[in-house]
Design goal:
Blueprint lengths: L1 H9 L5 H11 L35 E10 L4 E9 L4 E8 L4 H12 L8 E4 L3 H4 L1 H10 L2 E4 L9 H14 L10 H17 L11 H12 L1
Parallel strand pairs: 1-4, 4-5
Antiparallel strand pairs: 1-2, 2-3
Amino acid sequence: MIKQILRYQYKLVVNHKKVYRIMKKLGIRSIIRKKRKLAKEKVYVKEDLLKRDFTAPEPGMKFVTDITYIPTSRKMVYLCTIIDLFNNEPVSWTVSDYQDKTLTLETLQKLARTTDLKGCIIHSDQGVHYTNKQYVTELKELGVHQSMSRKGNCWDNACAESFFSHYKAETLRIMKNKIRSMHDVMEMTKEYMEYYTNYRPQKKLGGLPPGLFKNQHLQISQ
């Protein structure tokens, strides 16, 4: 900087090494900005308890969760979903324009308000939204067994990936160029969740939609 000041303000062309030598001789030191050290948050990685067994004999025993992004004409929006592996039903979901810890926590807390999660398994990838202390502690307090995919292996969470694939194919392609804001995404997602749960047949469920499949199971169980 001093070399440039000498050149442009005083018309003195001096090599920067000479400037450094003179400054060192006269004991002149520049004020250097201190580099900010960002504290690395500890991550908590858990064992893969599912081991790709995406089946459950009863509702509320095994869940998978993940986050996907949805582009709008204004900004990116994010969807977090928790799916019950008994009938592939999206039992809790949250749309947000911020991809932070609150996205996964809010989705989990919504489910906890309607479902006793003690003793169940909730499976995710190893993203920071699932390995942070706050999320891990919340699961522990709820009595949940936390499970995680192996690093870099998307097939370990294939059911969540599959749901998002259907969701995008059956909403984004139809609504192309019409999604302008987070509000549009929320309305679209709300309608799709209702359709997916109560009307969309699934081969795995004998051609029944998830909601009807669960209701029939509960009636037989009684």
